[in-house]
Structures are given as structure tokens and as C-alpha cells.
Amino acid sequence: MAIDPAARTTAPDLIDGRDAGSVTKTFAEAVVEAERIIRGAPHVTSDQDLAEGLDYLAGSIKASLHMVGAYQHEHPYFASSTGPYAKLGLDNPDTLYFHAYLRDDAEYVVTGRRGTTSDLSFQIMNGDYSPSRSPDSLTAFDDRELDIAEDGTFQLRFGPPKPSQGPGYVALPPGSAMLIVREVFSDWDNERPGEIRIHRADTLGTSPPPVPSDRMARRFEVAGKMLLARLRTFLAFPEWHYLKLPVNTLTEPRPTPGGLATQFSSVGHYDLDDDEVMVITVPAADSDVAPYQGFQLGSMWYISLDYINHQTSLTAEQARVDEDGMIRYVVSERDPGLTNWIERTGHRRGYLQFRWQRLTRDLTPADGPTAEVMPFDELPRRLPHYDQQRITEHEWTQRIAARQTAIARRMLG
Fold it and tell me: Between 20 and 30 A from 361 (CA), which of 34, 54, 240, 260?
């Protein structure tokens, strides 16, 4: 018997009583509103600004659907929070970010193997970012708190407070909602990531029930709300912490707001003509004080610039340290032919960010950066140790090739 082709297409619509498109309608409407937000951002003044905003939107759409799917309290898993193709919140080019959702009344087991990265840290947050506030950091520590075996393996348990918790048990404060894990690379060429896994103590070995269509519909609705909150939040975030500062300056090192217990940062924003350069001078941190020290640029979308194909960031390990112990970064649109050139990649305006992690002491103003803007043509005369920083075109190509190779290897790590 022949089957009416129309019946094939309409019958599934009758299963949950919804018309085709009704499940995804709210998400589609959120995408349209998100595009309005992108187009209406105050810094959009060129086609490059808009094109980058639309690319940011595409990554945010992907990330929102991904994060909603990862919202698993009973059978949690670590999801990639941000990366080269779905950026968020001035992501650090040197970091792999993972998150898992928690409940404060359940117990979770995290097992892993420590890699060779400069830092491995854990942070418990009480919610997501919103356009009006940042979530509170409830607990933060790094792998110095772990009992790591000779083969690099470790185990942690997170759960409600107990009278006798024992080593390796981390009490979840009320309101705990998310566990964030960061692996931070200082030497891109030689450091390797580790392994990490999470499960809920009372569900390991069981299977989650199938997700019914009404819950799938709810996921699309939540993803739309998450998408809009994500864009609005991180367009507002720089107003809180960056844009009220004097332009072309950097703050003293300070604890990162809402960040890790052992991380300090220095921030600023720049506005430079193509014939201007910013020379940023900072002491190379003693590895006993800060095993990780990194600098990066960010776009006005509050995300990293292309750090794979351009040198828009440098760790202390990657930078040239002058004989006086200082690192001198040259932020410039034009190529100065110098090892520590930080490429603006067409971004006249943007954000400046230093991070120091795994600290053994608080940093002081003397540990922080200074910045000076000068004409491009004055670099040979005014930049200390200028001749020692010179680099050939072939050597620069090798530096970029090393970045591309290292990121490709890291993403498969």
C-alpha cells in the first residue's frame, strides 16, 4: 500500500501535540534578538566589528546549546566551557576550561591524572554570570591541595559538610552550582594536559532515563535565555572592570574579582592609532612566586583575539626577557620586527590583561606593569634592548607555526 508522503511529515507533529517549529520558536526568537544585540553594540563602527560580532554570536549559539545539554546533576560530566571557536569572558589563550554542574546536597567524585601544565585549579561557583552581577566564588584551590600519587593520579570528593570529612573531601557550601577546572599552559611546546572525570557517588553504574520531548523543548527555551544573558553580561562586564579606567594604562596587580584564590591580575584598555605603539614593561616573575605569568589582548567583544594564527598573547615562558629581568611587550598594528610584538590584528581599541597564577605571595605594585605610548618610528631609539629583540621574517614565521602546532596538539590532548 502506498503511503501518503504528507502523512510522513505531519504524523510526528501529532506525537506531542505541537506544530512543527513550536519547540524551537523561542530559541529562534532569541537568536534574532541576539543579532540585534550584536548589531547595536556601541563599539560596532566597521564591517570588521560586525563580522567578528556575528562570529562571536555563532560560537555563543553553539556554546549555549552545549551547556544546556551538559546540565546534568545526576550523571554529570565535564564540558568545555570556552575554547578557540566558542569564546567567552576574555578567555585566556593559555587555559583549558572545563565545568560540571552540581547540587549542594549530593556527593561527587572527581578523579584524574595530573599533567605537566603550570597550574591546575578548581573553583566552586554559586551560579552563572548575569548582566547585573558576577557569581560568587565559594571555594577555590589549586592542585597543591591534592594528594597526587607517583603516577600522577588523584581523587577528590565534593559533597555536603560532614562531621569527619577526611583528606580529599571538599565541603560544598550552600548554593554550590558549578565546578570549574582550569589547566594553564606556560610552555605551549612541552607542557601536556592531564585527565579528569566526574561522577555522582550514588549514580555511577546506572543510566539516565530517556529525555522526553517536553524536556527537550524546555532545553531550547533555556538555551535561548542563556544565549541572551551570555551576550548582555559580557558586553556589560568590561564597564564594571575596564572601561572606567584611564585609557592606555594598566592597574596594579590585584586579586582577580570573583576569581581564583591564587590568581592576581592587571587590566586596562587601549586606543591606539596605527602609527602608535604601546610599550608595556613588567618584571618577569620568579617561578617560585608565580609559575604562570601571561599577557593577552582582547577585542571589544570581551573575548581573546586570534591567538592561534597571530601573536596576540605571550606567557613569560614564550616572551624574550631582557638582561635586566624585564619583559617589554610592544603592542602595535604595524610589524616592528621584534620578538615581543603583540599583534593588534586591526583592533584599534581593545582590552589588556595580565594574569599571575599559583602565587606563593601577594603581588605588589613593583611586580606589576607600566605602559608608555610612543610613535612607531621612535621604537629604535626609545625601546631598551631594541637590537636584542630584533627577529627575522623567517624566525617570526617559525613562532607562528609553533603556536598553530601547539594549539592543535592541545585541543586533542
Answer: 240
